[in-house]
Amino acid sequence: MPSLLCGHIPWHHLEENRSYLLKEKINPEIYLSSDALDSIDMKQVRIFSSELLDNSLSCTIHAPFMDLNPGSVDRTIRETTRLRAEQTLNIADILKARIVVFHPGYSRLSYGSVVDRWISNTVSFWEQQIPRIKEAGCLVALENIFEEEPSTLLKVLEQLDSTIFGHCFDVGHFNMFATVSFDDWFSILGNRIIEAHLHDNHGTADEHLPVGEGEIDFTRVTALLKRYAPDSVWTLEAHSRERLERSIKAVSNYL
User: Which CATH number goes with the domain that contains 28?
Assistant: First the structure.
């Protein structure tokens, strides 16, 4: 059983969906894009935090990721990434988020020849954020995106405090890019998983289909999650209310 079941919701869609989330008791994973961070009303963040508390709900946060990379060889990009990370952690603090999910920024095509430098930069970046992460009281999960196998994520996580940093296993991204089996991935990173993103696809595009409407074997995935990461958070990354409702219904078969 997951410790928490969440539904993905971008901040800019929250207002139109907040009554629904609160009424249906859906724990949200709030996606904060860079545009959201530039325009967000902190008063509204505090109001929503109170609403979550009043309704006995928890949340997680998905940080912005477009054009950001904590391991970049370009110092200016790392600095911009640092700014966005700190803005995200400020909101996580107010919302009392359990976990903040960040994209690691690695791609073999871009960094394969300088992988050690990327790993070193990434570790240094996150070590510098530890005081703020502790202050916010959350955990940080690094999500697989373009990773074909888990070695780079493992090398980063091995050098970071395991009481603060973990892995977000995204099954949709895995289905698109991984060249290893579920069992191989979980045997290496399974006990580091603190959150899982559950959505479906057919292996060629990030379709974000409801659970069970693509080609992914969720019977196997959920069995591995229960075995290796029984206390992880499961987030349904459905990009509409209708898809979220279908995912909630489908995932109930695996709870």
Answer: 3.20.20.150
